[in-house]
Amino acid sequence: MEIFIGVFTVIIIIISILMVISILLQEDKSGGGMGVLGGSSQSFFGASSGNILTKITSILLVIFIISGIAVSILCSTATSESTITEKDIQKKQYENRTLVDTKNDYIEKKDSTTDNTKK
Q: How far apart, in whole angstroms, are the C-alpha atoms of residue 25 and residue 57?
């Protein structure tokens, strides 16, 4: 279980880095072409790079959301298996009380038999 959580966490980190890069490479919507990297996305990816980068960003976003949901489900099942509930605590207290009571009964019985021999 912990391996899957680690794998999905690494996937989320890689996807977020790729999303930042794809968002920074997208052309500015104002049409000036002077985005974060000075319009380098047009010269690097060609004239239709806006459509490609938008699709890549959308796909990365879907993968990011699915990975995030998967990690949250895996973490919730992992913690529910290892969490001590109120019922478990009460059961343990009852078991301990029963053990103490039986020991006390044994000690009281032992004391009462020793008292009878002294009389």
A: 10
Q: Cβ distance 16 to 64 under 8 Å? A: yes
Look up residue 81 and give its amino acid.
Answer: E
pLDDT tens per residue, range 3-56: 888 898 999 999 999 999 998 988 776 655 545 555 554 555 555 556 888 899
Q: Give the residue carrying structure tokens 């006390």.
A: 104
Token pair 């976003």 is at which residue? 61
Provide the number of structural domains found in the chain.
2
pTM of the model: 0.53
For residue 76, give the 3-state DSSP assignment: helix
* Domain span at 99: 85-119
Q: Compute the distance between CA of residue 103 and CA of residue 111 in angstroms, rounded to an integer.
A: 12
Which is more confidently placed, 101 or 22?
Answer: 22
